[in-house]
Amino acid sequence: DVKVTQSSRYLVKRTGEKVFLECVQDMDHENMFWYRQDPGLGLRLIYFSYDVKMKEKGDIPEGYSVSREKKERFSLILESASTNQTSMYLCASSVTSGRERYEQYFGPGTRLTVT
Amino acid sequence: EDQVTQSPEALRLQEGESSSLNCSYTVSGLRGLFWYRQDPGKGPEFLFTLYSAGEEKEKERLKATLTKKESFLHITAPKPEDSATYLCAVQAGSNYKLTFGKGTLLTVNP
Questions:
Q1: What is the pLDDT of residues B40-98, one digit of tens each?
Q2: A102 forms bridges with which residues in the sheet?
Q3: CA A29 to CA A1: how far, in whole Å?
Q4: Is the minimum CB–CB distance between A11 and chain B shorter than 8 Å?
């Protein structure tokens, strides 16, 4: 079974702090994704990575950056947290080839509150 | 721009009362349609992938079908443990991005 883990289930940070959210997958997947989920807005893609050190902007990258130094690990960084970044953050991974290549598997999520 | 619309937004059923959830989509070059289940406060759990019109997949009380414009998730004789938000997503084009609908919140009362 694919396992995607996220470093924290709940996180509370202050405005202006630098925040790191980490995601690790154990299935050797090439692709990794960061989403945020808000009521009424659904899941929105922040960034994704299709290889180590490679990244592409999603639909809402402003205020975020990412890092992928190892294949299994994908980090989301909030350079200076703001209250409008309070949200549920979800990490996902998928393979590049084969019939299952678009199936994304999600972690449990991190509920971030910025005060 | 790819669009995914799910209906209804919320559905309340009695245990054993079968029904269907709808996911309509507008994409150019569908490569896959995906159904997920999400419990409160948790990440989405993968259920099915459908690749082409006419395809059907089943898992326990759930059956997903696909046409050229929409997909249905049929729930037969649901139980309270089927209560969750069901998400639909599509993949089109050459990258790996999924476009998600906003989900249907299903509540099954005992």
A1: 999 999 999 999 999 999 999 999 999 999 999 999 999 999 999 999 999 987 677 89
A2: none
A3: 12
A4: no
Which residue, B64, B94, B84, is CA-closest to B76? Answer: B64
- Distance (Å) from the alpha carbon of B101 to chain A's nearest alpha carbon: 7
CA trace torsion A60, B31, A91, B42 (10° rounding): 110
B69 is written with which tokens?
Answer: 């414009």
B60: left (phi over 0), alpha (psi -120 to 50) or beta: left
- Interface mutation target, options A104, A105, A110, A112, chain B, most CBs of B under 10 Å: A104
Indicate the SS3 state at residue A73.
strand
What is the spatial distance between Cα A60 and Cα A20, in angstroms, rounded to a whole number?
A: 17
